[in-house]
C-alpha cells in the first residue's frame, strides 16, 4: 500500500513538473529581469522609460489574463489594458470572479495567472510568421527533423535551450539585417518580452489553481494505477509540442536578457552624464 501511494505521488509530481515546471522557471527568471529593466529604464529616462516597452507589452500581458478568464469561465468585472497614471505604478489589470466550488474554474486560476506567458509567446510567434516567415519556417523544419526525445527528463530542458539558440540564429542572419520586417520584429520582441513576466499578484492567483491541478492529477493517477493505465505515456505523446513551446519561451528569455543589458547601459550612461 505504501509503495502504491509513493508511486502515485511520484508520477503526479513528475507530471505537474513537466506540465508547469518550464513555464514557472522561465516566468520567475523573466520576473527578476523585468524588475531590474524597469528600474534601470526609470532611473535613466524617468517614468516614460517604462512606457518605451509598456505601450505594447502591457496590453498583451493583460489580454493573456483575460483570454484565460474566458476559457475557464471566470467573470471579468473590470479590465484596463494600459493605464498611464495609476498612482501606484500599476500599468494594467484584469479583475475577475469565479465559483470556488467549481474545480475547472479553480484550476483556471493557474492558467489565468500564467496567461501573459501564453499571450506573449503567441504574439512573438505571430510576429515571426508575419515579419520573418523564412526564419520560422527554417526553424520548424529543423525542429521536426531533430525531435528525438520520447521521455520526460532534464535533458529535454537542455535540448529546448539548444533549439531556442537555433531559432535566434535563424532570426539574426545577414540577409535579415537588410529587411525592415526584421527590425520591426526586434522592436516588438523587446517590448513583448519585457512584459511577459508574472507579477506577484499573478503568482499568488495561480497558486490555488496549481494546487487544485496537482490534487486532480493525484486523483486521476490513483484511478489510472488501479486500472493499470500508464498516464505518463499520454504526457510523453505531447513532448514535442512542449519542447516547441519551451524553445519559444527561451527565445523570449534571451530577448529579455538583451533588454537587461541595454537598460544597464542606458542607466550607466545617464549616471555618467
How would you explain this protein's 3D organization?
By secondary structure, the protein is mostly helical. It contains 11 helices and 2 strands; from the N terminus they run ααββααααααααα. The protein has a two-stranded antiparallel sheet. Helix 2 (48-71) packs antiparallel against helix 3 (103-113), helix 4 (115-131) crosses helix 5 and helix 4 (115-131) packs across helix 11 (239-272). The chain starts with a helix and ends with a helix.
Sum this structure up briefly.
With 273 residues, the chain is mainly alpha-helical.
Layout of helices and strands, plus pairs?
Elements: H1 2-45, H2 48-71, E1 75-80, E2 93-97, H3 103-113, H4 115-131, H5 133-146, H6 155-171, H7 174-177, H8 180-193, H9 200-226, H10 231-237, H11 239-272
Antiparallel strand pairs: 1-2
Helix pairs in contact: 1-9, 1-11, 2-3, 2-4, 2-8, 3-9, 4-5, 4-8, 4-11, 5-6, 6-11, 8-11
What keywords describe this structure?
273 residues; globular; two-stranded antiparallel sheet; mainly alpha; single chain; 11 helices
What shape does the CA trace take?
A: globular
Find the count of extended strands (DSSP E, 2+ residues): 2
Instruction: Give the integer mean of the pLDDT values.
Output: 83
Radius of gyration: 20 Å
Amino acid at each position: 500500500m505504501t509503495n502504491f501511494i509513493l508511486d502515485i505521488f511520484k508520477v503526479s509530481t513528475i507530471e505537474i513538473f513537466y506540465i508547469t515546471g518550464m513555464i514557472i522557471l522561465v516566468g520567475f527568471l523573466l520576473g527578476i529581469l523585468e524588475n531590474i529593466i524597469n528600474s534601470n529604464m526609470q532611473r535613466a529616462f524617468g517614468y516614460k522609460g517604462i512606457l518605451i516597452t509598456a505601450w505594447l507589452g502591457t496590453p498583451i500581458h493583460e489580454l493573456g489574463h483575460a483570454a484565460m478568464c474566458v476559457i475557464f469561465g471566470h467573470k471579468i468585472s473590470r479590465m484596463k489594458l494600459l493605464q498611464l497614471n495609476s498612482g501606484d505604478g500599476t500599468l494594467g489589470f484584469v479583475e475577475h470572479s469565479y465559483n470556488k466550488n467549481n474545480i475547472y474554474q479553480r484550476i483556471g486560476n493557474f492558467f489565468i495567472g500564467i496567461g501573459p506567458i501564453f499571450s506573449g509567446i503567441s504574439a512573438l510567434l505571430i510576429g515571426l510568421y508575419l515579419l520573418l516567415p523564412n526564419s520560422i519556417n527554417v526553424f520548424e523544419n529543423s525542429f521536426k527533423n531533430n525531435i528525438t526525445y520520447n521521455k520526460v527528463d532534464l535533458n529535454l530542458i537542455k535540448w529546448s535551450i539548444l533549439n531556442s539558440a537555433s531559432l535566434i540564429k535563424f532570426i539574426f542572419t545577414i540577409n535579415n539585417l537588410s529587411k525592415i520586417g526584421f527590425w520591426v520584429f526586434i522592436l516588438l520582441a523587446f517590448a513583448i518580452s519585457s512584459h511577459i513576466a508574472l507579477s506577484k499578484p499573478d503568482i499568488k492567483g495561480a497558486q490555488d489553481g496549481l494546487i487544485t491541478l496537482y490534487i486532480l492529477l493525484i486523483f486521476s493517477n490513483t484511478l489510472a494505477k488501479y486500472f493499470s493505465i500508464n498516464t505518463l505515456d499520454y504526457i510523453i505523446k505531447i513532448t514535442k509540442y512542449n519542447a516547441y513551446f519551451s524553445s519559444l519561451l527561451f527565445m523570449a528569455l534571451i530577448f529579455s536578457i538583451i533588454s537587461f543589458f541595454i537598460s544597464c547601459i542606458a542607466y550607466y550612461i545617464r549616471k555618467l552624464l
